[in-house]
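Help! Submission page says 'invalid entity' but I think these are all valid:
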Amino acid sequence: MCGVFGIFDHPEAANLTYLGLHALQHRGQESAGVVSNDGGTLHGVRAMGHVRKIFTREVLAQLPGRIAIGHVRYTTAGGSLVKNVQPLSAQYRGRSIAVAHNGNLVDEDVLREELEAQGAIFATMSDTEVVLQLMARSGRAAVVDQLIDALGRIRGAYSLVFTTEDKLIAVRDPHGFRPLVLGRLRSESGAWVVASETCAFDLIEADFVRDVAPGEILVIDAAGPRSVMVPPAPRRFCVFEHVYFARPDSVLDGVSVYEARIAMGEQLASEHPADADMVVPVPDSGVVAAMGFARRSGIAFELGLIRNHYVGRTFIEPMDSIRHFGVRLKLNAVPKLLAGKRVVIVDDSIVRGTTARKIVRLVRNAGAREVHVRISSPPVDGPCHYGIDTPTRAELVASGQTVGAIAAAIEADSLGYLSPDGLRAAVRQTPGFSYCDACFTGEYPVQPTRPVGRRQLRLVEV
Amino acid sequence: MCGVFGIFDHPEAANLTYLGLHALQHRGQESAGVVSNDGGTLHGVRAMGHVRKIFTREVLAQLPGRIAIGHVRYTTAGGSLVKNVQPLSAQYRGRSIAVAHNGNLVDEDVLREELEAQGAIFATMSDTEVVLQLMARSGRAAVVDQLIDALGRIRGAYSLVFTTEDKLIAVRDPHGFRPLVLGRLRSESGAWVVASETCAFDLIEADFVRDVAPGEILVIDAAGPRSVMVPPAPRRFCVFEHVYFARPDSVLDGVSVYEARIAMGEQLASEHPADADMVVPVPDSGVVAAMGFARRSGIAFELGLIRNHYVGRTFIEPMDSIRHFGVRLKLNAVPKLLAGKRVVIVDDSIVRGTTARKIVRLVRNAGAREVHVRISSPPVDGPCHYGIDTPTRAELVASGQTVGAIAAAIEADSLGYLSPDGLRAAVRQTPGFSYCDACFTGEYPVQPTRPVGRRQLRLVEV
Amino acid sequence: MCGVFGIFDHPEAANLTYLGLHALQHRGQESAGVVSNDGGTLHGVRAMGHVRKIFTREVLAQLPGRIAIGHVRYTTAGGSLVKNVQPLSAQYRGRSIAVAHNGNLVDEDVLREELEAQGAIFATMSDTEVVLQLMARSGRAAVVDQLIDALGRIRGAYSLVFTTEDKLIAVRDPHGFRPLVLGRLRSESGAWVVASETCAFDLIEADFVRDVAPGEILVIDAAGPRSVMVPPAPRRFCVFEHVYFARPDSVLDGVSVYEARIAMGEQLASEHPADADMVVPVPDSGVVAAMGFARRSGIAFELGLIRNHYVGRTFIEPMDSIRHFGVRLKLNAVPKLLAGKRVVIVDDSIVRGTTARKIVRLVRNAGAREVHVRISSPPVDGPCHYGIDTPTRAELVASGQTVGAIAAAIEADSLGYLSPDGLRAAVRQTPGFSYCDACFTGEYPVQPTRPVGRRQLRLVEV
Amino acid sequence: MCGVFGIFDHPEAANLTYLGLHALQHRGQESAGVVSNDGGTLHGVRAMGHVRKIFTREVLAQLPGRIAIGHVRYTTAGGSLVKNVQPLSAQYRGRSIAVAHNGNLVDEDVLREELEAQGAIFATMSDTEVVLQLMARSGRAAVVDQLIDALGRIRGAYSLVFTTEDKLIAVRDPHGFRPLVLGRLRSESGAWVVASETCAFDLIEADFVRDVAPGEILVIDAAGPRSVMVPPAPRRFCVFEHVYFARPDSVLDGVSVYEARIAMGEQLASEHPADADMVVPVPDSGVVAAMGFARRSGIAFELGLIRNHYVGRTFIEPMDSIRHFGVRLKLNAVPKLLAGKRVVIVDDSIVRGTTARKIVRLVRNAGAREVHVRISSPPVDGPCHYGIDTPTRAELVASGQTVGAIAAAIEADSLGYLSPDGLRAAVRQTPGFSYCDACFTGEYPVQPTRPVGRRQLRLVEV
């Protein structure tokens, strides 16, 4: 999970990139980076932490230039951190280049071996570096030609934003797994912007122009934007962007995330009705779907779980003896509301099941008579090869279990998952535009050549 | 605005106080402090910032003892900070004592002059120190007697939690302006706890026992809790605790905050209906009232404004040129949802009117056809003398203006405030239990002897 | 051990105080504070750490006014820190006042009891607060009269700098235990300054005017400086200021610290000659005395021990297993120089003996054939009651031991201490100006009324 | 200017590397890094700042493995920092490798162009990466063979420490420009260590074994150390290591730095005697040479300038108006000592001349009658191509000026520089072992192919 941003030709390019990353912060909170391009010289800042902590006024003042790209990321390797805070920058054939990447290449291992056999050295463990190495080895002179050559070798999910020389380049893989949108500042500058989600445009007062098309190489320079298309492939936009990654105020590939989530909740209510007194979302992930569920079912929507806004992801219990307070630090049930009631809890997904069980207990301890859990997506029982960090199959509570067994595991009185077809309807799948749903159907649009293991890290950056 | 907490007789007193403050963080984010009592020796930590940043494992390890009190505060003096991060600790007549205070004394200036004339020196500009000075000057030996003497001299709003020697003492002023509740840990320790709100009990798995009564001095020591009552006064619980200070999962003086807010929204819909397509709350302050409004009116409830969770109070725009993005950094409108619609925006209050105007514009720019604003409390046009930091009358948009003029100022198509009687009904005012609503009625239950000015600071702590 | 500074009537009073504290940093590295006086309103900053870390440009900008005082301190209570970072500020009888204190009152416990019996509350465990309480209880109106009354009650060592209203006030106790000097800026401002040592004047380009006299109350306001004298007492300037507290570039009570240390080394060489190949100082404490020793003895002066400048007091070994490297982190011997040589190591004092033993071993391991230790002061075997934090008698290696036994304990081939008379000669004691040398003679000029124990802390600030 | 360290086969390899870097901190204070090797997986930490700030207990705990290398550096590009905090780590041909580099390659630009033409991408602007790229392109399988191939292509100054697979490899260029020494832990582990200077061995209780020879590739693995020699070249050890880079307690290529500095001072006194009352060193750089000067001249050695130990390199004057205090913040003259005296000031070098002029003024303002400056090295009037960051020729005060003109510029009564022959004698130059002294003789042992400009940065890391 990552977010990318780019801007072409604005005197405050780095500042607007900062704002864009700010709006994309939900796509990655572990690290962030900005590279500005000042007449071909690249100036970069990358650090662990939140956008607003890293990019102080002093730091931004050191990022000159009218072009900039940015990246937010959620690093996956637990504990120690792979050395790949992005954007990645490099120099080859006299050219300085930087790239921000959202997605995941399959066969990165195969390509890396091949490149290393040719004498390449890798400074990072990131698959993004493979793209740059392939470009550097292209026999052709123009950066766009080098990029076309490189894209001919890679497979998988990628939305890439480059800057080099006098250009901003945005690329989306032929399946269109990850979102990427083009916009333009409303101000007289008319600067072009690209971003992972439209919510970044709203913040900086840019108009949405269009989605970057799957397979498109969009080159923006002083002559304006122009496109090169690589050979097409079936559309496979990640359905989980709608389920939970994207912000509800974004519109992705023509579909409003908010509307999709309302529709998921409505569909869920039709598929798995419940005889209950109230519908309570798990905040904030389940709120919009819960509204849909309440509308369709006619059951009252109540905020029976209150989120503590002052707990970040990094909250560490200071003493072992109070660690068991667990989910309570983030959520509190409203006893007056729940006491004696039959409650439907709505959330977007269940991963390991431990949090779900804690929430069920929390609601029951607050006095609820019955607790019914409804999930606005199908059970996930396979890994994602396209950029989402999922636990191993063994850790997934849905893996190889019946819904009844899962309900028992999380101690719910009943449990219902949205069906795959229900989800497809909610996100308006059409014959011409289908989604990637490999993680619950097992139908992977792009297969890795070698079986995928947890990668063995050889270069670990603390 | 402050939050207080206290615990008696638990081996991890400071850790549980930390958790309690965590649950009360919404009552003050500027500073926090904990004082633990280890056999009469007081160990204190006070610092600027959020509870979870200040109280690391290492810091908590330095707070031994089975009794502890804590405090979160929102400091009022703009720019420089008065030296009164709490709890306040002191030594007098060989006794060490610490106190955490929520509220505001009237006549603090008069008492301070009197005490200074007697040779008292004040280490802080806090009115809390006046209480300790009065206790030190009591002729009596027992701390409870000293406290009774001191309370006989002070007027205003106060919920106080003390620790000294082997005791935890909780005090609430005779009018009961500010909340204070008593609970008991469910675990075998059965430790007694007091807190500003019941939500602190939920977090630490304590049962609510009862409200500390207005005028009650509750002393807890090895012999258990016992009470002394000072002469009674009319109940004057601050109605704005229900409107916006308290967390919706708290129950204060017998009234559920959540239910009160739903009722405010319902009442508001009855008083000021709107012909509209959707009800949209300002997150998070207007959410519960908006739900009530939607229910009573039958208009669809939609999350048309999305809050950016990664913006704290301390967000500083790094460049002047992007300062005008203002409220956009915190809120984004959902264009797909609002386009062409007639929208009711619900919030809890309007102070200066600048934020309200920005929100109206944001919604209108997202395509809304009409924007109707509904506020779940009456117009505030006077200052609070009882612990709330309100702007001066001149800064209050409602001061001396008609509702029509305010609507024009915030650029709304219509504007409706909940009536005083509507609010009273929502919070279930009865003849025997009326609320303090001085800030919109001008009926101040306790009048300061001298006209209140902005206090002149003589000791400023940076 | 502390350092104090004050300045009267300069537009950058806080900035110059910052510089003054910088020059006095050697007198205390644990905390620092500045209080500026802006027309009677006091603005204060106090924090743990070094002067240059605490007082950033932003912090200094919040300290307006033409008068300022400052303080650096080395806190004594191990582990947890008493809440008495200075300057101390307070309000009494409508007057704001702040004070910085270098020294130690005897009978602080007796006075505190008396004041508490009168209803005083103490916000700190600092003896400085006693002075303010006594001033507040004076029946007289003028602050100087209040001060005279207070000084009539206290005994011990004190160099105090106050600011209140439009005044800067400097006070030195009748014995003159601690240094205090008066100077004047060379610039056209001609602002008056007071400081613990003259080296602070050199930094800010002020001329030394004179020492503040023992028993003098020096009041500086718009009318210029004027003095009030309290009854005199025998001069008892702390001889250890010359041995190791003061900076060698300071001149205290007419005696150059540098010259005094040279003389100590010369005297030491006369009293305890050594048949050796080189004189090696322990850097930096023993350097000047070692130069004197080398001069008088004719033995070569060599820097056989090199100090690592990058180790601060706060150096913490990151792993237990490397803790034994101990003193090596601070000092390294020069093997090429020491191999096969007979070495005289010169230092200013020995406290517990553990560091001395490590240094002897370090030098011997570097190949020295003989290691003779010479100390430029007499053996310290008693506590200081006047402001120096000494270990308990039991921890002092010199307590109740013969010099031979100490030599054996530190593994030196020989050991010589400067005699009391030798030290007196070096610091030019005259019949009319004798020094306090209680810590090695046991003749305490001011005796505490009660036996002194380690104070029991009742208010501990973490 | 950098320092390198490596250790082979110790259970606390990273901890000892931390200590080694600590002892080498004087060779670079801007950044530091450690890479540990845990069975072929490399774990790295690199950061701006001092060793003891970066490597906390927590950080070191994340660096497992029995082999480790480390680096301290002083970055040269003013303001913004090139992205080359070391050690550099990379992966090529399935092998993870890390390297720490002290020195500077000539022709790095030529090699970089050649490598980029072959498709190499560079992640950094560091010449060290060129070495890795050359190794990766070697046709041979063994890392030592790859290294031999790479060294065949590079010229200039380099002391390199690598770790890969199960090996620690130390390399020194054929001229031996920069120091590199081999040692062995005294403890039973007998672990091998390499470092820039012997002072690192003293700290960790390792014995000096020998210098790594110019042109030596020293490979240490489970079979013990073995060496491969590349073709020899004339010895050209940097004479300025003895003048000021190295710590006086180090012994480099058989010469004691301390003894060399004493000899420089003695020689200087013979060449440029002064009729004066005292010899005063600029602390700490001029201390040892001043001792030599005093010995040879018979003039008294006095510490007339006192260094303020609490001013780091990062000291920033908080207010513009006090910036002119300049050098006073670091040094103070001792007025009592200097008044009326004829003073010889000894320092190791003069660069721009501005600091020297300030010191002369400081001493004169303290009352000195005459100020004679003596410098323990010849005038530097050319750049260094071998790893020292010198200002441009235009900034060097000695460039194209007579000594008389320099004396006038720094306002000294007289000025004397040590002659080139005098310096050679002091460092014991022999026909078989001559030093690099290009910066004052203009005789560069290795000439860059292209004229050297200030490199144009294309990738700037903030």
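Support: the input was valid. A stray whitespace character was the problem, and the output above is from the cleaned input. The longest strand of chain C covers residues 95-106.
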